[in-house]
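re: ur question from yesterday

yeah so i grabbed the chain u mentioned. its 454 aa long if i counted rite. heres the sequnce exactly as i have it in my notes:
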Amino acid sequence: MSVPQVLIIDDEADIRALLELTLGRMNLETRSAGDVASAFALLDEYRFDLCLTDMRLPDGDGLDIVRHIEEHHRGLPVAVITAHGSMETAIAALKGGAFDFVCKPLNINELRSLVRSALSMTKQPGTDGTTAAAKLLGDSEQIRAVRTLIERLARGQAPVYISGESGTGKELAARLIHDLGPRAGKPFVAVNCGAIPEQLMESEFFGHRKGSFTGAFADKDGLFKTAHGGTLFLDEVGDLPVPMQVKLLRAIQEKAVRPVGSQQETPVDVRILSATHKNLHELVRLGAFRQDLYYRLNVIELVIPPLRERADDIPGLAQHLASKLAAGRALPLTPGAVAALKHYSFPGNVRELENIMERALTLCEGHEIDVFDLRLPPERTPAGPSNFDATPETAFPAEDYTGERSLEEHLALVERAAIEKALRDTHQNKTAAAKELGITFRALRYKLEKLGIE
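ran it thru and got these structure tokens back, copy pasting raw so excuse formatting
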């Protein structure tokens, strides 16, 4: 096998010598340039597997190198070397297409890790989107664009902010970015930021030392340490309290964490992916989310479209989900069922579609799934307002009770509508929803289990 070739671009001779020595000990061949013009000449003459460039150069800057490689040598990973604390510069490079960045003064271990990640990426066979397509189903223009962007994002290390409504598949997109990238063999750790009690957040994220607080009977690694070498997916990041946002920002920028009760920081190497169904930009405007953390997480945004905006994908998705849920037992959908699904607004998106298909398979008594088996409430179709936008009283009004179902069934429908509305109004915060409904948290939890509400 040929020895990987690395292009080093830096106007300081001692930095070039350090990089050449370090990479040489990794059995890599290097060529060096001291300015942009010389670097362009080498790029035209030789084939490289990795480029390391300083940001400040005599006849330009590292962004010129990044843009040139993105345009003329697509697929060549380029990492930039920035001054310590120049996070804005590093973010600009990542947005421009840089694979990753490393800060001066150079940390040799961090540099080696970066080089290994970049080279493992270049050894991976090229993809044509089929890997992503196998998991992110659909043939609409919107979903094809999402798959294409996922393939591109997987090749870098830039933080990605995944936005979209609940149930659209944000975690699936995050897993694809991880699985298709150089960290695929390392841990993928997903955490719902809204599910961790505020008093335990620092310990959960950064770990703790034995005896650091009551109940700390042993050392514990946090989520950052668990995800070391891999990817940390922060779901519902908009639910983080402001004090925790400050600590998270420092951990991301310094690439190190300090466990609770420890006096020393521990280096960590993780790629950060984040998501939320909330409008982070609006939260920043209201002061509920730190602007500096927002810009650090939102280097590149991946928008997952709601299901109602890609109605042509619904029949294929429904049939795929039906086959999966029925363990391969193919039950086709009637034309009427397909039409009903395509005209339904799907406030719960793909997650709701999966629930609908599971219910239909349970209720279906024939050899195909018909409209009746779907049990789509009339209020959710174009013929009337959506239950998700209605009040409990208008969703299932008392005068609509005709005796066709038992009183217990009718009351259950009214109760379900009230609970679902309270959860939406409180952004799925069960404590707040229970308060809005005037019941205890324990009572709400019991009703959620009883009614089968996720």
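noticed a couple things. Confidence is low (pLDDT under 50) at residues 379-396. also Residues 138 and 313 are 5 Å apart (CA to CA).
anyway ttyl
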